[in-house]
From TrEMBL:
GO biological process, one term: peptide transport
Key word Membrane present: no
UniProt source species: Arthrobacter globiformis (strain ATCC 8010 / DSM 20124 / JCM 1332 / NBRC 12137 / NCIMB 8907 / NRRL B-2979 / 168)
Record domain Solute-binding protein family: where: 87-431
Gene3D superfamilies reported for this sequence: Dipeptide-binding Protein, Domain 3 (3.10.105.10), Periplasmic binding protein-like II (3.40.190.10)
Protein name: Putative ABC transporter substrate-binding protein
Pfam families: SBP_bac_5
Alphabetical keyword list: Signal
Cellular-component GO terms for this entry: ATP-binding cassette (ABC) transporter complex; periplasmic space
Entry GO MF terms: peptide transmembrane transporter activity
Tagged with keyword Transmembrane helix: no
InterPro entries documented for this protein: Peptide/Ni-bd, SBP_5, SBP_5_dom
Signal peptide: 1-33
Length: 519
């Protein structure tokens, strides 16, 4: 029987809004007193983030904390996806077409230079693909976008590039939109902290732990941005980020919560992020599907959405939201049923599963608003189902060791809180990395499931959509690697002095060139 009652939330979580108000007043006042905001020119747009980027390496730009600064600001892709229409548009490539079942030919923009003065050409484009996809650097974009497939690239002439795939790939141009182009002088033996790109802004200075400053450069091939500089700071508390906007210390604040007291300076936008637990099926007790099912039943998703996020988020039944090719609208979120969760755990225990073994609930600090409180809620709810859960709050660099292969050894069972954004608009970018047996962010899989995924990857049109819909249903029924929680709605704080309309990609790539001073 499905329970309709709500599990009690930890007292600390229920009191959080009141405590946050006190924190905002105290921290904001202190920050204003030490601010040099008055000295900043109106030609500078000031952005406050939830965390400092771990790197600005171009081949890691699909990581939200990196891409929000570097993508389409410092570096640029060959092809760009319009986040409002979903259509692919020219960027450093002006046109592209399939010239065989496995080959694509791209024509490149001429007259473009990198910020070091060297020319952009087919050699640089080929180098970028080789470095990010075919090398041993372990770039995040390789696992996220291309998986194990290597690409053959050839600079036919200065403005013509061919890319050949091992198998037919109907969405290769979309995959290429994730590669930020760098010059051939970029290291091939190590990742770089600060890339050189072709974008409208170059990295002027990175004061570690304090701020990053970007500035325009005169050699940019496109239109000159309205703001001469962009300055990024970071504060882990979303309420503090909101207070920086309301007090005039910042112009744009990312990743706000509905109760951050931002008022009419808060702007909602259709975020593409989904929050879920990724469950490790290789260690007890999560290696038993009944326990993974119990995790799903034990989580009061509606209670979380309503209590922590004021109903602005939507209960999730899969890793992709509406609008992504392959989203299965027939799926509904697992019902909250504590009795069922307890029964499944007891059944597994009776069959010899050691349900007392510890599950590490791994959560990244400041990844999104209320994440600490959410971790506390999940720990308590899973504990009430009879599971032994330890909450581990980690910084970004530590969390990444759990997020991407190779995963830590001898850790035991892990439930990793993940915030997955599919800004590409196609389910392949979710499924290939999170569900294939060899996926960069997948704990496990089955040969049957792998075959289903490979079939979907090669399909196009209505068949592609149908195949991915079946994959999400199969995951929930037969695999249960995930306990989905919610599809998020994004909120940014925006000063009245700035014109900017956020879109579904704003949380992943905040294009400063699209911002203008309000008249």
């Amino acid at each position: 029987m499905t329970s309709s009652s709500k599990l009690p939330f930890p007292a600390a979580v229920l009191k959080w809004p009141a405590l946050a108000s006190v924190a905002v007043l105290g921290l904001s006042g202190c920050s204003v007193a030490n601010s040099d905001a008055a000295a900043l020119s109106s030609n500078t747009v000031r952005v406050v983030l939830g965390q400092e980027p771990p790197t600005l390496e171009a081949c890691e730009s699909n990581l939200t904390s990196t891409g929000v600064v570097v993508r389409s600001n410092v570096t640029e892709p060959l092809i760009e996806r319009n986040p409002k229409t979903g259509e692919l548009e020219p960027k450093l490539a002006t046109e592209w077409k399939a010239t065989s079942d496995t080959e694509w030919t791209l024509k490149l923009r001429e007259g473009v230079k990198f910020q070091d003065g060297t020319p952009f050409n087919a050699e640089a484009a080929a180098f970028t693909i080789d470095r990010a996809v075919n090398s041993k650097l372990g770039c995040n974009v390789e696992g996220y976008v291309f998986g194990d497939a290597d690409l053959k690239v050839k600079a036919v002439d200065a403005s013509t590039l061919t890319v050949t795939t091992p198998e037919p790939d109907p969405i290769l141009p979309l995959r290429l939109s994730f590669l930020e182009v760098v010059p051939t002088s970029t290291s091939t033996t190590a990742k770089v902290r600060e890339p050189i790109g072709t974008g409208p802004y170059k990295i002027e200075q990175w004061d570690s732990g304090q701020k990053i400053t970007l500035s325009t450069w005169d050699g940019y091939w496109g239109d000159k941005p309205a703001y001469a500089k962009a300055e990024y700071q970071w504060r882990s508390e979303s309420s503090v980020r909101a207070a920086m906007v309301t007090s005039g210390e910042a112009d744009v604040a990312m990743g706000l919560s509905p109760d951050d007291n931002i008022g009419d300076l808060g702007v909602d936008y259709p975020n593409n992020e989904t929050v879920a637990l990724r469950l490790d099926a290789n260690a007890a007790p999560l290696n038993d599907i009944r326990v993974r099912q119990a995790v799903n039943y034990a989580i009061d998703k509606e209670g979380i959405v309503n209590s922590l996020y004021q109903g602005k988020h939507k209960v999730a039944a899969q890793l992709v939201p509406e609008g992504v090719v392959g989203h299965n609208s027939a799926l509904t979120g697992w019902p909250f049923d504590l009795d069922k969760a307890k029964s499944l755990v007891a059944e597994a225990k009776a069959d010899g599963v050691d349900t007392s073994k510890q599950i590490s609930l791994v959560v990244r600090s400041a990844q999104f608003p209320k994440i600490t409180e959410l971790g506390q809620v999940l720990q308590e709810q899973l504990g009430q189902a009879g599971l032994n859960v330890k909450l581990k709050m980690l910084e970004t660099s530590q969390h990444l060791t759990y997020q991407v292969r190779p995963f830590p050894k001898d850790e035991g069972a892990v439930a990793l809180m993940t915030q997955h954004g599919n800004q590409a608009g196609d389910a392949a970018f979710t499924v290939d990395q999170y569900m294939l047996s060899t996926g960069a962010q997948s704990y496990f899989g089955t040969p049957e499931f792998d075959a289903m995924i490979k079939k979907a990857d090669a399909a196009s049109g209505d068949e592609r959509k149908k195949d991915f819909e079946e994959i999400f249903a199969y995951q929930n029924d037969k695999v249960v690697q995930f306990a989905h929680i919610s599809h998020q709605t994004g909120i940014i704080g925006k000063a009245k002095s700035v014109n900017y309309t956020p879109n579904s990609s704003s949380g992943d790539e905040l294009r400063v060139a699209e911002m203008t001073p309000a008249s």
